[in-house]
Amino acid sequence: MNLVLKISILQKYQSQADFAQMVGIRDDALSRIIRGRRLPTDEEREKISQFLRIPAAELFSSGH
Predict the structure, then answer these.
(1) CATH number for the domain whose boundaries are 3-59
(2) What is the pTM of this model?
């Protein structure tokens, strides 16, 4: 599970679903990304990173 991503989302947005809507990703897809069951596309990585204002390398490093 990518705890850095999950915690970052919840610190800045009301819910994971609110964040998914803002970014334009389906909530179930975001959930799978957070749980490590799905890799985000390059576009999704960039959008998530931009909305959270955290470099993609920090959010999606291999240690998460």
Answers:
(1) 1.10.260.40
(2) 0.88
Torsion 25-46-1-18 (CA) sign: negative
What confidence score (pLDDT) does residue 63 get? 55
How many CB atoms sit inside 10 A of residue 16's CB? 16
Structural domain spans, the chain: 3-59
**Average pLDDT value for the chain:** 93
CB burial of 22-42 (b: ≥16 within 10 Å; e: otherwise) equals ebebeeeebbebbeeeeebee
Model confidence pLDDT, tens digit, residues 23-43: 999 999 999 999 999 999 999
